[in-house]
Amino acid sequence: MEYAYAAGAHGFLAGRAVWWQALQSFPDLERCAAQLRQEGGATLAELAALTKRAGHAWHADYSAFDAMSKEGELCTAYA
Questions:
Q1: How far lies 9's CA from each of 4, 15, 23, 26, 50, in Å?
Q2: What is the pLDDT of residue 11?
Q3: How far is it, in rounded angstroms, from Cα 76 to Cα 67?
Q4: How far apart are CA 75 and CA 54, in angstroms?
Q5: Which of 2, 12, 24, 79 is least enclosed by beta carbons within 10 angstroms?
Q6: What is the pTM of this model?
């Protein structure tokens, strides 16, 4: 995520980064839950801290719409 934020990312979606390691204990659901609470929570906290430190607020940018005068120019404006 550090590289993503340096490239202009605004945030993250957490999925496998949070639960992948815990599911290595499947089918032992108790162990999965314990690992998820411990490791998944730590991973999520780490991502949240990085986002607070390096993330950027997202702002809508509709400036490309000003240059459009006819139907079909939306794709051209973003190409």
A1: 5, 17, 28, 33, 12
A2: 85
A3: 10
A4: 31
A5: 79
A6: 0.58
